[in-house]
Amino acid sequence: MLEVAKMAVEAAVKAGADYADARMGTDLTESLTVRNQEMEGIDRSESTGVGIRVLVDGRWGFASTARVSDEEIARAAALSVDVAKAAHRLPGDPVTLAAIEPAVASWRSRMTEDPFTISLEEKVALLMEATRRAQQVKGVTFAEGGLDFFRRSTWFASSEGAAIDQVTTHSGGGLEVVAVAEGDMQRRSFPNSFRGHIKAAGWEHIRTLELIEQAERIAREAVDLLSAPECPSTITTLVLDSGQVGLQIHESIGHPIELDRVLGMEEAYAGSSWLKADDRGTVRYGSPLVSITADAALPGGLGSFGYDDEGVPAQRVPVIVDGVFENFLTNRETAPVVDQTSNGTSRADGWSHLPLIRMTNVSIEPRQGTLAEIIGDTKDGIFMATNQSWSIDDKRINFQFGCEIAWEIEKGKLTRLYKHPNYTGITPEFWGSCDAIGGREAWTLWGTPNCGKGQPGQVARVGHGASPARFRDVQVGVRG
Amino acid sequence: MPGPIGDDAFRSVAEGALRLPGVDGVEVMFLHEWGGLTRFAKSEIHQSTAREDSELRVRVVTNARVGVASTNDVSPKGARRAAESAREMAEVVAPDPLWPGLAPPAEAVGRNGFDEATANTAPETRAEAVATLVAQSPEGFTAAGAMETRASEVGVANSNGQFCWAPSTIASLTTVVSGGEEGSGFAEVFAGRTDDVDAEEVGRRAAAKAVSSQEPKPLDPGEYVVVLEPAAVSTLVGFLAYVGFGGRLYVEGRSCFSGKAGQEVANRAVSIWDDATDPRTLGIPFDFEGVPRRRVDLVRDGTFVDAVYDLRTGKQAGVETTGHALPAPNPEGPFPLNLFLATGDASVADMVGATEHGVLVTRFHYSNVVNPVESSITGMTRDGTFLIEHGEVVGPVVNLRFTQSILDALKDVSMIGRDSDLASEFFFSASRVPALKIERFQFTGRSDH
User: Fold this and answer.
1) Alpha carbon distance B400, A445 (integer Å)
2) Any residues with CB less than 8 A from the CB of A117 and at least 6 apart, and which?
3) CA distance, residue A86 to nearest chain B CA (Å)
4) Is residue B327 within 8 angstroms of chain A, CB to CB?
5) Full residue range of the structural domain in which residue B95 is found
6) Is residue B1 over pLDDT 70?
């Protein structure tokens, strides 16, 4: 397969490219969904093709095809050059790539039990039992369990001499319980919402999820929420579970630190950023407790890899250090703008897409204590868990996020249950109000498999390590 | 150049799966897309692509046990391999008590939505359109956006003998013009043909908005009269489909319309329907199970009529499918992809002129559901938000956050635009909607720009 990528690069150079790279790729997926012990869906997919990216006189072109024949690759290579030449219709500064040492390497994500070799019977049985346990709770309308497995194999070659093959395997699972009463619907998810907890791992990760063991608990919570009062509308102390902190990082830190957004390259679609290109080392993003790291070399995350889709090795990048913004996520095109070399975050949604700057594993550094200890240290406030809804403006300043469940905190203890909890804030003010972050023992590396960006739209799989955290003076309970 | 493989070739490929032995039924869904996108920012073309991909999605049924497998190997061998994989999955799962069977043979008739010139649009043609658009921005302003031309062919064949196939094309141009002292403007167009994209008009419209949006002033959140342009209305209609119109949500009591059949849910001037066969939208004449599509009234004169269904949820609800299946497997159920909101007799200028104190909204950004059963959503305004005083637009305001029940908003509609635009809240669907004047709309926060 690497030979196909090399052939595509040669064809592109022959067609007139000054620089070319190619990714031959195959994506495999398997997905199972069981609802109330009945099969909702079971499917597998396979997609293979090659994407060719070129620079011609400083302008990008890209073409991809699923038909991997010599003739078709030559056609796609020539087309990528035509696309780049057409870009010269408008004037502009030529793209200059940050220099890298071309890598010749092979990389595999860690895995001990290949999920694609586990029998379908075993997978179905797990979901059947988890949904059966949840259904036993009176008032449950339905319980839905899901398992998802993903494998991406990529063979990358460039006209600079890079030759890299990589295989990443992701496994995830989750349970969702829904209770419906007249005019109301409540949902509880475990271990996290939107298909659960997904990691760069094999079946061994599924064995740790406790979908069966936790089914009754979340089912009871879903039913209890139906009779719970609405989350009050007030300004208070807010404690978030680690899953919601992961979402908060994703939306209000992960996206605004993407240098392509800062430079306006995403302005018409996903938006830009409140950060400016010269903000490094000067802007206070959060309280001194808040340190954020982007770490593609961290094992187990959906943003873990050996090399990005430009052949740049995985790196650990300090993004926010003690509350001060230090580094953007960059690629070879944008890094020179901030006088750096690429920190390796260029990734594509498979072989058919152009690589963009994408989050790797963008995580908050753990501090001290468990969730129970943070709540115990809180005189009064609200604890919210499990993301349900997210919305943020085009510069990532004003946000409003909803969770599945909340409890009042009184004198360090969880008391009254609340439904429809949400909170709103302004990004630097919110992170500036953070005065507690849980320790390593409370830190989880979550997977976000559905991060959208780019035109045509791309979906990235990214990671967020997070501990529970506490924020002061937050507006909760927003209602129209 | 890529091109359609055609109905005969699809039939030959599908045969590789349809002849699978030892099963009760086989369905093959085929999707082939090709085209290009010219992306620009800061008035430069920075990311351009030309892409082609296909999908064969094979659903196999044996004793009401269902498995699905897909591949982009569009060959009889690829189809057969996917069918065998789907059969393997079907053999290990429990029977589906709601299995409705595959679609029966039925002719699906619709418009010819395929334009050869659009399918073959060259990168130079897209770049020329972008250059025309960019030229409309005044000095100190730049344009960002994308021009896309895309062709596709969709086919469905099943072992009941149903066979349908349709090619189609789409051309779109979207832009945000920004600059000056802070402020931006948005415009877009969706069409079936490249020739119907007027780049100069789109660029001029966005530039005018950007110039008008300079130095926005803060505005206190609260309840306002709003005039929503079609792009903003498409957010309300798109999310109403998401939380309300799907038959599965409806029969399971999870829809904002559950239990409201025959009840007044909106102002009597509001009618919403789905019709993929209408030439004013970009639909294909059958769904992803091969069921012919037709017009389905959802809200008629303010009264909720019914949801949309596929074969399975139709059986669940005891009604016929309305032809709104998405590709299998689809736990979310059916969805309307080609919505219409009935037009009225007002212009946007009329609506502004009839507003004493209110807000004019160009579009919303990154909206999401707050409470689905109440049809409550939140989101931000973007790229042109203006204060209206005494019947006139008096100046731009910073972007506002709304948290609002869609059905409450539709109850408070007081004027409806006489023109409609095709606009898209979600990448997979489009709504043809007019502007609306709404008497009560809740803004719950604001940003700094």
Assistant:
1) 34
2) none
3) 5
4) no
5) 6-209
6) no
**Closest-approach residue (CA) in chain A for B150:** A456
A236-to-A60, A98, A229, A378, B271 alpha-carbon distances in Å: 50, 47, 17, 11, 43
Q: What is the pLDDT of residue A480?
A: 84
DSSP A320-331: EETTEE---B--
Q: Find the CATH number of the domain harbouring B132.
A: 3.30.2290.10
B323: confidence class by pLDDT, cuts 50, 70, 90: very high
* Residues of A with Cβ-Cβ distance to B438 under 8 angstroms: none
**Number of domains comprising chain B:** 2
Q: Report residue B227 CA to chain centroid gap.
A: 22
User: In terms of Cα–Cα distance, which of B410, B412, B388, B384 is closest to B398?
Assistant: B384
Q: Are residues B123 and B183 in the same domain?
A: yes
Q: Give how far the C-alpha of residue B285 lies from the chain's centroid of Cα atoms, to the nearest Å.
A: 16
- Verify whether the Cβ–Cβ distance B48 to A269 is below 8 Å: no
Nearest to A285 by CA among A339, A249, A234, A233: A249
Are B41 and B168 found together in one domain? yes
Q: In angstroms, rounded to a whole number, what is the distance separating the alpha carbons of residues B89 and B81?
A: 13
The reply to whether residue B365 touches residue A141, judged by beta carbons under 8 angstroms, is no
Shortest alpha-carbon distance between residue A408 and chain B (Å): 20
B322 and B427 part of one domain? yes
- Which helix or strand (DSSP H or E) is residue A474 part of? strand A469-476
B276: distance to nearest CA of chain A, Å?
Answer: 23
Contact A185, A227 (CB under 8 A): no
Tokens of A179: 């209770």
With a threshold of 0.95, does the pTM exceed it?
A: yes
Chain A contact for B252 (CB, 8 A cutoff): yes
Tell me the C-alpha distance between B391 and A242, whole Å: 49
The residue among B191, B209, B227 that closes a domain is B209
User: What's the rounded Cα separation, in Å, for the pair B81 and B59?
Assistant: 12
Query: Which of these three, B146, B181, B209, is where a domain ends?
Result: B209
Give dist(CA A421, CA B361) in Å, integer: 27
Query: Considering only CA atoms, which of B113, B96, B80, B56 is closest in space to residue B286?
Result: B113
Picking from A141, A265, A478, the nearest residue to B46 by CB comes out as A265
Closest B-chain CA to A88: B45
Compute the C-alpha angle A442/A448/A451, nearest 5°. 145
Q: Are residues B242 and B154 in the same domain?
A: no
Q: Give residue-wise pLDDT tens across range B269-279.
A: 999 999 999 99
Residue B1 lies in a domain: no
Mean pLDDT of the residues in chain B = 96
Closest Cα in chain A, distance from residue B69 (Å)? 5
Q: How many CA atoms lie within 13 A of A273 on its CB side?
A: 24
**Burial class of residue B201 in the structure, from the number of CB atoms within 10 Å of its CB (0-12 exposed, 13-18 middle, 19+ buried):** middle
Asked, for residue B90, whether it belongs to a domain, the answer is: yes
Kindly state whether B315 is in contact with chain A, defined as any CB-CB distance less than 8 angstroms.
no
Nearest CB to A38 within list B43, B96, B365: B96
Residue ranges and CATH numbers for the domains of chain A are: 2-226 (3.30.2290.10), 234-476 (no CATH)
Model confidence over B67-102: pLDDT tens digits?
999 999 999 999 999 999 999 999 999 899 999 999
Burial B310-343 (b: 16+ CB within 10 A, else e): bbbbbbbbeeebbbbbbbbbbeebbbbbbbbbbb
In chain A, which residue's Cα lies nearest the Cα of B126?
A: A86
